[in-house]
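Meet my pick.
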Amino acid sequence: NIKVHIWFQSFYIGNKPIVPCDNSILSVKPEWTNRNKASIDSTEIPTHKGEHNGYFIDPANKEVTDFLKELLCEISAKYSIDGINLDYVRYPTSAKPTSSTYELSNWGYTPAARNEFKEIYGVDPAEVEYRTPLWSDWAKYRQNKISNFVEDIAKTFKNRGIIVSAVVFPTQENGIATKQQNWQSWAQSGYLNAITPLILTADYELSGEMINGIKKGSTGNVAIYPGIFVPFMEGEEEDLLKQMHLIRAEKLDGIIIFDWAHFGVKYKEVLKSSAFLPTVEKTAENSKTKKKTRR
């Protein structure tokens, strides 16, 4: 009865170097690359040093979003999947707004986006400066590109009985300012069946703050499956159990443990010995059932 959900890295394509004339996406379609303002005039395909030196593709390019949707349709047609979990459904991370490098570190300065934004507002976003009136329009333009993609994928696959969820960052203000990810609007609009917020800490108090923030922002009927990163961050077994207890105490819908590659023996043992043991009441109930069956 195990269900299989595809983990789909939407606008992130990995960090394997782009080799001319190979079959990688950006070798075939270099115009699909995403760019930050600092690399706007570069002839090189930019990587993001803070995100595994990885490459990103452009959410504002309709060819890109059509390709991703087609790829998901192919996966759902070939394999009997139960769900799709959209990861990297956002722009690459910029510096914080308080940083002097914030404007130059913002992403989305691609030909497709610049041309369309200029048609709408009469100004090339390359000329729009942070803290000027048009900056909020430029930010909203990019947020809408992500939201429109989520809505399209959700409508396509929810109608086919496939659960659609998305990886989100717990602090919504920071997610909007640095990643153009307005997940609260997705939850309020009912686009998704579930969200899978990243609890990127082994600290109990901080994880509690993150979970409370997610609960406050998640209006509507969207389910919440927090992703625990204790094994990934090489925390203690106790940290894993404490976060699981916190999620259960908050009566959320489930738990994700990230990830199998970092899921060492010590975590497996502590889960087998305590976290997933049946409750005393359930054990007693099963015992009574067995006795009745024997009679």
User: Anything to note?
Assistant: The CA atoms of residues 96 and 174 lie 8 Å apart. Confidence is low (pLDDT under 50) at residues 280-284, 290-295. The first strand starts at residue 5 and ends at 9.
